[in-house]
Design brief:
Jelly Rolls; 9 helices; 471 residues; Double Stranded RNA Binding Domain; elongated; 39% helix; alpha+beta
Length: 471
């Protein structure tokens, strides 16, 4: 409780005074009178604990606890009427009837006037004991109130919390089941729709193939008959007959010329768009990026050898910054370096699997992010070294406030609701899919279906401010 009580010579408190009074009626009158006198001297009269402890559910304290500066039942004098044992000062052999607050120990009057406690704060031992008793009363009362609060907390708060948690958990389970069922139903419906679309497209192509097969079989038969007729005329006709066969020969030649040349057309190929679905694409990307075994971002850095002289690379290899003319330098020649366009590539080629990475584009007004073949041209000002303007690069471009997808010189406008501060990419080699998305909102910006035939490298171009690879 407190160090103040550590050296006090307190006797053991008996909690059974009430029972003793009931068992021995002869002591009841004298004990009550003795207790009344003790209560007036101990200054606890009217204390809240006098009612609380006597009526509380967990402890029964009798006023006889505070009697004549000692505790009832604590010494033989309390139950046998014999004089209480008097403790003497070891230095002066006098009664220890005072308390030194400085040294926190009982002392005698000579210790105060002649001994080691001269000048110290000394009070009567009975006053000190009364102070300690009053403090103990307050502490016991506080403990009982705390016990009541704990009991109330257990009975009311924890019970209510348990019921609330059970109800909330039940509601959460219902939400999970409802969400999964909604996704499952939508997925099953979309699956059925896409399978039917693929089946219709397959039937269309097969019908076209049958038509083409019948047409060209007839054409082949026509061509074969015309040729056979002409060969027969050539080998079995006399000069006079051959000269007189001009019309027949012309007819056969006209038939052969009408056959034409066979060629493959788009109508004979399955339209891959028949299996495209925003729902399926979103679920696929979400499963890869947000699922329990989602793709962790690749730890990429730009290849210092590839960085254009128009750019500077941060020491950690992750930030490209466009340089004004006065800050540009001429680095030594390197076959891997882009020497004319503000480009750079990463050092990790991708040849299989699933990969995702993101770039912080900040407020840059001109940048390109995407992938390119490792064999892309690095030198010169031509389109072969310009990202998005050749067959070896696929990039999302931002310039003059507009977004577009660029490949082989073709630009496809990309609509965005809000300009993203980051642009991320997800490349699935086996699915032949490159996806650009906003990692902050998980919204898809553009999707590319491409069967890559060479190792690809993450790439970037910066013509304003900076772009940083983020992990």
């Amino acid at each position: 409780m407190s160090a103040d009580y550590g050296l006090c010579d307190l006797a053991v408190v008996s909690l059974r005074d009430t029972e003793q009074e009931e068992e021995d009626p002869g002591l009841r009158g004298s004990q009550k009178e003795h207790n009344n006198n003790s209560r007036s001297r101990s200054s606890v009269e009217g204390s809240p604990l006098s009612d609380t402890l006597s009526e509380g559910p967990w402890i029964n304290v009798s006023p006889s606890l505070y009697s004549n500066g000692s505790v009832a039942g604590a010494s033989p004098a309390a139950d046998s009427g014999s004089p209480a044992e008097v403790k003497l000062c070891p230095a002066h052999q006098s009664e220890l009837d005072r308390y030194c607050n400085t040294e926190q120990r009982p002392v005698c009057s000579l210790c105060e006037t002649l001994g080691s406690c001269q000048g110290h704060t000394v009070t009567q031992l009975t006053e000190r004991a009364t102070t300690v008793r009053n403090k103990l009363v307050d502490i016991c009362e506080t403990m009982q109130l705390q016990a009541l609060r704990i009991e109330r907390f257990i009975q009311h708060t924890l019970t209510a919390k348990e019921k609330a948690v059970q109800a909330e958990a039940s509601s959460a389970r219902e939400r999970v089941v409802a969400q999964v069922n909604a996704v499952r139903e939508a997925l099953e419906e979309e699956e059925q729709r896409l399978l039917e679309a693929v089946h219709r497209e397959e039937e269309r192509v097969e019908q076209c193939l049958l038509t083409q097969r019948a047409h060209w079989s007839q054409a082949l038969n026509t061509l074969s008959n015309a040729r056979t007729s002409l060969v027969h005329t050539l080998t079995h006709s006399t000069d006079t007959m051959l000269v007189n066969s001009n019309q027949e020969i012309s007819d056969r030649i006209e038939e052969a010329e009408g056959v034409g040349e066979p060629k493959d057309t788009e109508q004979l190929n399955l339209n891959r768009d028949c299996s495209d679905s925003k729902l399926m694409l979103g679920l696929w990307a979400s499963a890869l990026l947000l699922g329990p075994s989602g793709r962790a971002p690749a730890h990429l850095h730009f290849d210092q050898r590839s960085v254009s002289p128009l750019l500077s690379l941060s020491p950690d290899g992750r930030t490209l910054t466009f340089l004004p003319k006065r800050q540009r330098q001429s680095p030594p020649y390197d076959p891997e370096r882009f020497d004319s366009w503000p480009n750079a590539v990463c050092s990790n080629p991708i040849t299989s699997g699933q990969h995702s990475w993101a770039l912080d584009v900040g407020t840059s007004g001109a940048f390109k992010v995407g992938v390119c073949y490792a064999s892309m041209q690095r030198k010169g000002t031509g389109n072969d070294a310009r990202l998005g303007y050749n067959a070896k690069s696929w990039v999302l471009s931002h310039y003059d406030g507009d977004f577009s997808f660029c490949h082989n010189g073709r630009n496809i406008s990309v609509a965005v609701v809000k300009r993203p501060s980051k642009v991320a990419m997800l490349l699935d080699w086996s699915m032949q899919t490159l996806l650009f998305y906003d990692p902050d909102t998980m919204s898809i910006l553009h999707t590319v279906r491409q069967a890559f035939t060479e190792p690809v490298l993450p790439t970037c171009a910066v013509a304003d401010q900076s772009v940083t690879i983020v992990h």
